[in-house]
UniProtKB/TrEMBL annotation:
Residues passing through the membrane, by range: 12-32, 52-71, 91-120, 141-161, 181-201
Species the sequence originates in: Pseudolactococcus chungangensis CAU 28 = DSM 22330
UniProt name for this protein: TVP38/TMEM64 family membrane protein
Family designation: Belongs to the TVP38/TMEM64 family.
Alphabetical list of Pfam families matching this protein: VTT_dom (PF09335)
Assigned keywords, A-Z: Cell membrane, Membrane, Transmembrane, Transmembrane helix
Length: 202
């Protein structure tokens, strides 16, 4: 690939990245306005009102909540299981979160620390980057372990990882292999956790 073609391809990807950010910001603002981000019943009504497009709408919501890390993903993850059932809900959660993570990693690579520090507090950013200074291999292992945990700040760690020398191959391997377990556990905890605690206290 010659230099001119490479520059054209880079410009195309830059435009796509900008459009991705704009689309996610508009989508996030719209969801906030109709109160879906805080009300799982509103989310359920939106998805169920569109029988055919419902799954695509839900997957799109999951992508948005990953790409814009300030949006809480707990509601959408639990709602996916409640709306579609445990198996189908898990699948849609997995697809949306994986796609969102890939987009977020790509945008982090394109826009660097400016984007990362927009969503991550500086003290946390510096702490995570301190892990990287201990060695790329050690950080890669820590990243894989963190992705397996349902309570880890996955989206922040994806942005941090985009600032390191982590390869796309390793990142995709970690996301594809590591995401199923925390998605399942997180969904189970959110749906059944309150009932479990109530039974313990009664």
């Amino acid at each position: 690939m010659n230099e001119k073609v490479l520059k054209i391809v880079q410009k195309i990807f830059n435009v796509i990245s900008i459009l991705e950010i704009i689309a996610c910001l508009i989508g996030g603002y719209y969801l906030y306005r109709i109160d879906i981000l805080r009300d799982p019943h509103a989310l359920s009504e939106l998805v169920m009102a569109h029988y055919i497009l419902g799954p695509f709408i839900f997957i799109g919501l999951q992508i948005i909540q990953v790409v814009i890390p300030i949006i809480p993903g707990g509601i959408t993850t639990a709602a996916g299981v409640m709306i579609f059932g445990p198996n189908t809900g898990f699948l849609y959660n997995y697809i949306g979160i994986v796609i969102g993570s890939i987009i977020l990693f790509h945008m982090g690579r394109v826009y660097g620390s400016v984007l990362a520090k927009t969503f991550i507090k500086e003290k946390h950013y510096n702490k995570y980057m301190g892990w990287v200074e201990k060695g790329q291999k050690k950080y890669d292992i820590l990243f894989f372990i963190a992705i397996l945990l349902p309570v880890a700040p996955d989206d922040a760690l994806v942005l941090i990882s985009s600032q390191t020398k982590m390869t796309w191959k390793y990142f995709l391997f970690t996301i594809f292999i590591g995401k199923p377990l925390p998605i399942y556990l997180y969904s189970y905890i959110l749906i059944h956790g309150s009932g479990f605690l109530a039974n313990l206290l009664t």
